[in-house]
């Protein structure tokens, strides 16, 4: 394991942006919070403060919801589908024009390596906006061939149309901040909704850049409002707000439950993208040259701070040793360092608290009798780094194998059973059901396993295939509803049925 240099100087453009006085974005204006308060934003690779940002509270959420409601009932409601489509494309173009700055801010704020930030913003920022830009003109109702009982001469027409649900509260986590924001904004705007976005308190920087970009794109004032703030304060106020018609939430299962309770007041709609503990199942005939790098990438992408991370590896006895050895070799060779350094393969975790949480799980894994094969420690010095860690010989009664760690910790469990139901039963032994993958050359085994695994997504010979057009979301306590694709639009729409008597 080598350590890359720990400090890489940000560009003048990033320094200038970070050094600004950052306000809240409400009604198309940059405004101060109702009560003066700030958030200190740290670079997790250096632990240094990189920016100070205005912190909104419940009164600012009130203002933002009022602005979103006014836009929803006003100018935005008069803009047709072609124009909404053009605006989403323009937003994508503006984001692309600001790509370098967005990438750098994301890296400094979140810690992820620059190539990952670049790929994710270009792919899931720009492409996602364009994908949903295309949907604006394809939101269709139906005509329904019925003859209602009280139509005297039998001549009637029944049709439905799909209307925007209204004001959306979007609450997002820190693990991929800009993308999480775009995943909410794009379908909401395509459907004709307006949005109040609350970014994670640890990572507000790219959401603030998005506010600037939104203004440049020509999207009318108040259509998107951005209020950085704490979850228990601004987030809770948004989730409970009677002026909000829907909450689109991504985050932990624990907070997802709180969102549901808060939303009960006005029975607003809720979609939840929550935690995961996804299985990666390797059969003895799998192509190990693809399995080994695939498993290392699946487990350690974003330092394991990834809801789809393949953190539970189930490997058949016949190939257990070479798979564990191969992954550990790759994991041990990953270079930890600041995301801006071209020599870094993995960045830091998001915070001291997160590192402490992950180290707690690692200590628990050592005590539980699992075999620590590599990693297991946090390098000395600045930055919230944890070495990629592999535990072998884990079992599903161990806490490290059952609970979401959200850090670079992989649990490897062996199986010898040829009973696919027994293998799948082990894979299903968590409260989650977000992603998963099966690795085999036997097409029947692969598809039988897909049938048996209770997850929103199960891939064959790849893990977590993600594209704006592929529906994504969780079963069981991984969430409610789906994002991405046509299904990702549905939660932002409501159906109105109309019958005309001739
Ligand atoms: P978190 O649940 O702590 O916070 C997520 C967001 O909710 C933040 O903006 C936070 O401020 C806000 N929040 C916190 N308490 C709140 C409350 N009482 N009311 C309203 N809002 C509140 O999650 P996190 O630590 O930021 O992110 C990690 C979690 O997110 C992991 O569990 C991960 O699996 C999950 N996640 C899921 C997906 C997915 O698509 N399924 C994607 C990324 C992350």
Explain this structure to me?
This protein has 502 residues and is an alpha/beta fold. It has two domains: 12-274 and 480-498, Aldehyde Dehydrogenase, Chain A, domain 1 (3-Layer(aba) Sandwich); 279-467, Aldehyde Dehydrogenase, Chain A, domain 2. It has helices spanning 12-18, 58-73, 75-78, 81-97, 99-110, 114-135, 177-191, 205-217, 231-240, 253-263, 288-300, 317-333, 352-368, 399-402, 420-427, 443-452, and strands spanning 24-26, 29-31, 38-43, 48-54, 143-144, 156-164, 167-171, 194-198, 224-226, 246-250, 269-273, 279-282, 312-316, 371-374, 389-392, 409-415, 437-439, 459-460, 479-480, 493-501. The chain has a seven-stranded mixed β-sheet with strand order 14-15-16-13-12-17-18, with helices on both faces. It has a six-stranded mixed β-sheet with strand order 9-8-7-10-11-19, with helices on both faces. A hairpin with a 2-residue loop joins strand 1 and strand 2. The longest helix has 22 residues, at 114-135. The mean pLDDT is 96. The structure holds nicotinamide-adenine-dinucleotide.
């Amino acid at each position: 394991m080598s350590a890359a240099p720990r400090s890489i100087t940000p560009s003048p453009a990033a320094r200038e942006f970070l050094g600004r006085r950052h306000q809240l974005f409400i009604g198309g204006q940059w405004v101060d919070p109702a009560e003066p308060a700030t958030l200190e934003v740290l670079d997790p690779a250096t632990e240094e403060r990189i920016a100070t940002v205005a912190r909104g509270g419940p009164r600012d959420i009130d203002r933002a919801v009022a602005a979103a409601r006014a836009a929803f009932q006003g100018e935005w409601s008069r803009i047709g589908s072609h124009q909404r489509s053009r605006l989403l494309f323009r937003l994508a173009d503006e984001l692309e024009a600001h790509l370098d700055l967005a990438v750098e801010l994301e890296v400094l704020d979140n810690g992820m390596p620059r190539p990952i930030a670049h790929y994710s913003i270009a792919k899931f920022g720009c492409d996602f906006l364009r994908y949903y830009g295309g949907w604006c003109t394809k939101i269709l109702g139906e005509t329904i061939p019925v003859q209602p009982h009280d139509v005297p001469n039998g001549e009637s027409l029944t049709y439905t149309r799909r209307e925007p649900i209204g004001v959306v509260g979007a609450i997002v986590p820190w693990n991929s901040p800009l993308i999480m924001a775009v995943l909410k904004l794009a379908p909401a705007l395509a459907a004709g909704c307006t949005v109040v976005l609350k970014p994670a308190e640890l990572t507000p920087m790219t959401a603030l850049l998005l506010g600037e970009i939104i203004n440049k794109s020509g999207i009318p004032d108040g259509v998107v409002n951005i209020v950085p703030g704490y979850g228990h304060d601004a987030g809770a106020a948004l989730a409970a707000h009677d002026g909000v018609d829907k909450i689109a939430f991504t985050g932990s299962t624990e907070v997802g439950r709180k969102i549901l309770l808060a939303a009960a007041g006005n029975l607003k709609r809720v979609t939840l993208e929550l935690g995961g503990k996804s299985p990666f199942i390797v059969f003895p005939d799998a192509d190990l040259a693809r399995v080994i790098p695939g498993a290392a990438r699946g487990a350690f992408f974003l330092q394991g701070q990834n809801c789809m991370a393949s953190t539970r590896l189930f490997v058949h006895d016949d190939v257990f040793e070479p798979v564990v050895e191969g992954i550990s070799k790759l994991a041990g060779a990953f270079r930890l360092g600041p995301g801006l350094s071209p020599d870094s393969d993995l960045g830091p975790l998001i915070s001291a608290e997160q590192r402490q949480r992950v180290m707690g799980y690692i200590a628990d894994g050592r005590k539980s009798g699992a075999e620590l094969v590599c990693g297991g420690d946090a390098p000395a010095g600045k930055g919230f780094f944890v070495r990629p860690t592999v535990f072998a010989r884990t079992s599903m009664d161990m806490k490290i194998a059952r609970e979401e760690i959200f850090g670079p910790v992989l649990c490897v469990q062996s199986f010898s059973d040829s009973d696919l139901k027994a293998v799948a039963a082990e894979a299903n032994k968590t409260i989650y059901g977000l992603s998963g993958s099966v690795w085999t050359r036997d097409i029947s085994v692969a598809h039988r396993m897909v049938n048996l695994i209770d997850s929103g997504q199960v891939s064959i010979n790849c893990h977590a295939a993600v594209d704006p057009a592929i529906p994504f979301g969780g079963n069981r306590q991984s969430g409610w509803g789906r994002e991405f694709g046509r299904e990702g639009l549905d939660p932002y729409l409501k159906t109105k049925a109309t019958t005309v008597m001739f």
